[in-house]
Each structure stands twice: as C-alpha cells, then as structure tokens.
C-alpha cells in the first residue's frame, strides 16, 4: 500500500529499531511507496513512511533491493556529494564513499553481504543514514 511520506524532522531524527520477520508488510508498503514516487526518488527507508524500523529499499533500475537491518561493514574512497531527500526540502552536502560493503538480512531473514559502488552505494548510505536518525 502506498503510504504518505513523513516530513516530521523530529520523528525522522530518531534511530530506528531492528526489523523482525513480523515487519515484512512494512517492506511491501515501502516498495509500493517508492514505486509511486519513482520520478523523484530512488531509495526509501521505513521511517520515511512513519515506521521506525531498520528497513530500506533501493531501486536498481526496475528491480527493487530490500534490506532488513542493513549495516555498512567497510567503506573506502570518500567524496563530497549533494543530495536531496523526499522527506526534506532542498539539497545538502554530505560525505559519501564510492565503495561500501554492506551486511543485511533478506526478506527470509537470511544474511547477505555484498560490495556496492557508485550511485547504488550512495543511495544505500543515504537510506542507512535514515535508519540511524541522520538527516542530510
């Protein structure tokens, strides 16, 4: 179900709780909402739809990657980026890393680890920041 996008910075600035298998429907709503905003958004975190759980979804160009409890376990090659956010007004400067290694759980709560680079890495970092209550 498509959910309204959260704009309350006090809510968005709080850390999210770990996701559990009971939160699968949140990922479904998050994916539906991301698709509804595909013209202006390439990734979303659960707190952006009012659910403070560590779940993110990323548009991989027609396919959606869901991550439950994602965490960056290594990063390299910092650079400065300017990002916008569907939940916030305007754009802001932020330090990102070209290469990140992420560990997360799948929808079946199996652990996965993968290295991401470039734009996908930047999107994942932005959404994990949301999970950590960090607003750009």
Which tags fit this structure?
single chain; 136 residues; alpha+beta; Peptide Deformylase; 5-stranded antiparallel β-sheet; globular
What is the molecular shape? globular
Structure classification: alpha+beta
Largest sheet: 5 strands, antiparallel
Instruction: Write down the CATH class.
Output: Alpha Beta
* Unreliable sequence segments: none
Radius of gyration: 14 Å
Side by side, the strands of the main sheet go: 1-2-3-4-5
Shape-level CATH architecture: Alpha-Beta Complex
Write structural notes for this entry.
23% of the residues lie in helices and 38% in strands. The protein has 136 residues and is an alpha+beta fold. The protein has one domain: Peptide Deformylase. Strands 1-2-3-4-5 form a 5-stranded antiparallel beta sheet.
Task: Give a quick rundown of the structure.
With 136 residues, the protein is an alpha+beta fold. The protein has 3 helices and 5 strands, in the order ααβββββα.
Chain-wise SSE layout:
Elements: H1 9-12, H2 24-36, E1 43-45, E2 55-59, E3 64-84, E4 91-105, E5 111-117, H3 118-131
Antiparallel strand pairs: 1-2, 2-3, 3-4, 4-5
